[in-house]
């Protein structure tokens, strides 16, 4: 179903302002045109009324016309101009201006006027057609004489009215067009300036989500102040709830730590775990506890994420892993700019990168590579190895908790799932692909830059 209104506030306000402006300009054009027509018509009627007054003074008491006193005013004295007058006597006599030989013209009064009122003190307007069918406008006056009523009519061509109106409408329409363009520009500026606080509010929320600010600034326009108060209250509520949940998870984990340690020591005694299956189960339980502890450590939005520099963090992890896997002789190539940091807790970063680097070291044949690049507000950490890698179908299964695609070694299958969850809970992501350089597995970790 087609939407009648845009989804954005800017689009809706712009559409309403545009429609209102077009309606206002159309109304203004119609009104000004009507006023202009009335103004031109008034001058036209004044000219006809002046001729009617001159002819009226030439009417004798016996209802005849004194032609010597019937003077033609300018326009009426020019043959072919279309300006004529005529007089109808009480006995059917007829006199007309000498400038044009015209057939008798019967004027048609306007609908709201009575036809040729005999007692009218002022001329009455009317419309008619000439001998060639051209539209004419007239003014008619009825003069009472002892012999009867004498009808005096002055007639002019309507083109005299249309010409100045057309001439005036061109600059009028141009002015209205320029006014419309000006109003459109003013509307765009108004919307840009008026909606600027919403854009600032969005930027503030981005800062809160990235951990650079704890709350949205309260210095907002009056209309947005209640929304900002609710957002800050929601941030505080979420932070308190998450802190409460983290505390509960931490308490549970610490409560399980001692029994698990004691159980592991008991199983280590001779003969209690002959095949090692019970010890493996203890290690899986320990892995799950560490997994949920890692989730609980992730700071809430606005919870004060700290800046962690990548170069020293990765260097420390590489040094530890070189010692753990010294027998394998893996060559590690590290390319980390010293000035790049991420908005991730150092302990979370160590667990996230440590799991991925340990996986790469265990599966590499001879080399691993670590690259760090900054892309806008995100940092991309790429960890590659020259091991066998995994195919596309197995990538989705690799993130399942407890799922091991390689049964060699002492892993428990939680490393990749923990790493992915830590990346996502810190506002980032983790993707696995095939390394184009080393031909093994490549892990791309995207984290928010700080």
From TrEMBL:
Top-rank taxon, per record: Bacteria
Stored InterPro entries: HAMP_dom, HATPase_C_sf, HATPase_dom, His_kinase_dom, HisK_dim/P_dom, HisK_dim/P_sf, Sig_transdc_His_kin-like_C, TCS_sensor_his_kinase
Chief location bin: membrane
- Pfam families per UniProt: HATPase_c (PF02518)
The record's top EC class is: transferase
Q: Does the keyword Membrane apply?
A: yes
* Disordered as annotated region, ranges: 91-139
Where found?
A: Membrane
- Under the GO molecular function aspect, what terms does this record hold? phosphorelay sensor kinase activity
**Enzyme Commission number(s) of this protein:** 2.7.13.3
Q: Which residues form a coiled coil?
A: none
Query: Where is the signal peptide, in residue numbers?
Result: none
The catalytic activity, as recorded, is: ATP + protein L-histidine = ADP + protein N-phospho-L-histidine
Q: List all Basic and acidic residues biased stretches.
A: 109-121
- Segments spanning the bilayer are 168-189
Annotated HAMP domain residues: 192-243
Q: What are the entry keywords?
A: Kinase, Membrane, Phosphoprotein, Transferase, Transmembrane, Transmembrane helix, Two-component regulatory system
Q: List residues of the Histidine kinase domain.
A: 251-450
Q: Which GO terms describe its cellular component?
A: plasma membrane
PANTHER family in the record: SENSOR HISTIDINE KINASE TRCS, SENSOR HISTIDINE KINASE YKOH
Indicate what this protein is called per its UniProt record. Answer: histidine kinase
- This chain's source organism reads Sphingomonas gei
Taxonomic lineage is: Bacteria, Pseudomonadati, Pseudomonadota, Alphaproteobacteria, Sphingomonadales
């Amino acid at each position: 179903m087609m939407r009648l209104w845009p989804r954005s506030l800017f689009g809706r306000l712009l559409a309403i302002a545009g429609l209102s402006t077009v309606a206002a300009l159309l109304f203004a054009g119609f009104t000004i045109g009507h006023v202009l027509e009335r103004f031109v018509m008034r001058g036209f009627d004044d000219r006809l009324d002046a001729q009617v007054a001159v002819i009226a003074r030439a009417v004798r008491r016996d209802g005849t016309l004194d032609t010597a006193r019937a003077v033609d005013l300018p326009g009426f004295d020019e043959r072919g101009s279309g300006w004529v007058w005529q007089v109808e006597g009480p006995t059917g006599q007829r006199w007309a201006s000498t400038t044009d030989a015209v057939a008798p013209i019967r004027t048609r009064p306007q609908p709201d006027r009575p036809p040729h009122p005999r007692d009218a003190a002022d001329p009455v307007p009317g419309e008619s057609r000439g001998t060639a069918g051209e539209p004419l406008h007239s003014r008619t006056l009825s003069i009472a004489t002892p012999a009867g009523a004498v009808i005096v009519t002055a007639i002019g061509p309507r083109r005299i009215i249309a010409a100045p109106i057309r001439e005036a409408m061109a600059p009028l329409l141009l002015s209205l067009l320029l006014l419309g363009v000006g109003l459109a520009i003013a509307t765009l500026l108004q919307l840009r300036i008026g909606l600027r606080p919403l854009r600032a509010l969005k930027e503030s929320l981005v800062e809160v989500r990235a951990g650079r600010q704890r709350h949205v600034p309260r210095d907002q326009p009056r209309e947005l102040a209640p929304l900002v108060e609710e957002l800050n209250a929601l941030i505080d509520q979420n932070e308190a709830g998450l802190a409460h949940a983290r505390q509960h998870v931490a308490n549970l984990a610490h409560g399980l730590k001692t029994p698990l340690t004691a159980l592991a020591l008991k199983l280590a005694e001779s003969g209690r775990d002959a095949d090692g299956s019970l010890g493996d189960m203890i290690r899986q339980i320990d892995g799950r506890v560490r997994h949920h502890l890692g989730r609980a450590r992730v700071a809430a939005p606005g919870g004060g994420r700290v800046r962690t520099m990548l170069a020293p963090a990765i260097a420390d992890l590489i040094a530890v892993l070189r010692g753990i896997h010294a027998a394998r002789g893996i060559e590690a190539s590290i390319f980390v700019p010293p000035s790049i940091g991420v908005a991730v807790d150092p302990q979370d970063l160590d667990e996230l990168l440590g799991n991925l680097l340990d996986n790469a070291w265990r599966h590499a044949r001879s080399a691993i590579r670590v690259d760090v690049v900054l892309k806008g507000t995100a940092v991309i950490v790429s960890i590659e190895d020259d091991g066998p890698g995994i195919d596309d179908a197995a990538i989705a299964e690799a993130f399942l908790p407890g799922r091991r695609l390689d049964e060699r070694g002492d892993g428990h299958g939680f490393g990749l799932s923990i790493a992915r969850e830590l990346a996502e809970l810190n506002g980032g992501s983790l993707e696995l692909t095939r390394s184009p350089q080393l031909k093994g597995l490549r892990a791309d970790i995207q984290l928010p830059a700080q």
